[in-house]
Amino acid sequence: DVKVTQSSRYLVKRTGEKVFLECVQDMDHENMFWYRQDPGLGLRLIYFSYDVKMKEKGDIPEGYSVSREKKERFSLILESASTNQTSMYLCASRWGQETQYFGPGTRLLVL
Amino acid sequence: ELKVEQNPLFLSMQEGKNYTIYCNYSTTSDRLYWYRQDPGKSLESLFVLLSNGAVKQEGRLMASLDTKARLSTLHITAAVHDLSATYFCAVGRGSQGNLIFGKGTKLSVKP
A77-110: b or e for each residue (b if 16 or more CB lie within 10 Å)? Predict the structure, then answer.
């Protein structure tokens, strides 16, 4: 079975802090994605990556950056956390055009 | 711009009844995905529909795709409480195939 893990299930941070969210997949998937999920807005794509060291902006990249130094790991970085970044963050991976496999999610609260 | 609309957004059903969730999308795509999300959990892949007329069934859930009408349906037969969850459809966008998600249908099955 595909396994996608995220470094934290819950995080509480202060405004202005730098926040790292890590995602690891164990199926050698080339494609990895970061979404945020908010009530009434559904899932929105922040960034994605099709290969190591490669990144592309999604629909809402402002305030975020990403890093993919190894194929299995995709990190989301909030350079200076703000309260409007309080959300559920979901990582996903997939091979080709197959279905995406999602991690358990990180619920981030920025105070 | 690709838009994905689900309806209804909320659905309260009685056990044993049948119902259908609709997923309309605005531009051509030949890939449609259905996911399930339980409260506080991540998304789980249900179906991948890759061609016009595709039909897939798993237990009490059946999904179909009509690419000409840009419509997918998720039919629930003889609902049971365990089916209570939020169901998302997602459509592949462009050559890279990033997914655009609908806002989800929150299904509640009552005895």
Answer: ebeebeeebbbbbbbbbbeeebbbbbbebbbbeb
